[in-house]
Design brief:
The protein has three helices and no strands. It is elongated. It is mostly helical and 90 residues long. The chain has a single domain, classed as Metal-sensitive repressor, helix protomer (Methane Monooxygenase Hydroxylase, Chain G, domain 1), CATH 1.20.58.1000. The longest helix has 32 residues.
């Protein structure tokens, strides 16, 4: 993931916001907040995870598929992406 170092600060910011959102869900459940409020918090986390996933997928495609130096590296990049997508779409 060395190609992600240029976006490291941005990615870590996203992860830290996700952690904060998850902690908000934990607090809401612990404080027995209304279901609707908890569901809105969960929906926010789902959207944030989707955004992070999209960003990482795009970086993978750019670096390991489109930017691959040779056919073997490109094949490996496609295989890795296919494996992730199979897991993601289950």
């Amino acid at each position: 993931m060395s190609h992600l170092t240029s976006d490291k600060t941005k990615l870590l910011g996203r992860v830290r916001r996700l952690r904060g959102q998850m902690e908000a869900i934990e607090r809401a459940v612990d404080e027995e907040k209304e279901c609707g409020e908890v569901l809105h918090l969960v929906a926010s986390v789902r959207g944030a995870i989707a955004g992070l996933t999209n960003e990482l997928l795009e970086a993978h495609l750019q670096h390991h598929v489109l930017g691959a130096d040779d056919e073997e590296e490109r094949r490996k990049g496609v295989e890795d992406l296919s494996s992730v997508l199979r897991s993601y779409l289950k």
